[in-house]
Amino acid sequence: MRKRFLVFGTWIAFLIVAGVSIRFILVPAHEKAKEAHRRESIEQMGFKVEDKVPLPSVEATFHKLTPIQLKNLTQVGKLDVPGVEFARGSSVLTDDARVVLDDIYLKLSNQPSYYIVVYGGTLDSSIEANKHKARERAKVIVAYLIAKGIDRDRIYASDEVKDDTSSVTFVLGQYL
Q: pTM score > 0.85 for this model?
């Protein structure tokens, strides 16, 4: 009787170990497939995706970030948008810019798991007025996208300015 129990116990232990092993093999493969799909969907939007950053599997709940948390966001993807034009010498969006931002809004709405940081650009960052204008333009873009429906705790205008570009840069990030 004791021998049967020992054999039966050995089989149960084997099945448990085998079950755990199978689970460890299948779950990561399944998660990798999901992550590959998320990565592909971000790339289809035109974002350049960071290779070594794990992408979240569920829709995020956003909370207001402190400036330190904002600086510590892990960049997931980046999109430079040269078509966001403003009225000459101002921070007023043109009709063409609104069309571009409406398209960006749809893309960002399809990726609800990430924070968004908007950077203004200037061709000459040595002039303080250009830096100020780039920051103000980023704020205008953020206000426009919030008005369209992006969660205000999810999108930020950066105080930093991207040099040597007149395009606006959108960065997708996650706070780990």
A: no
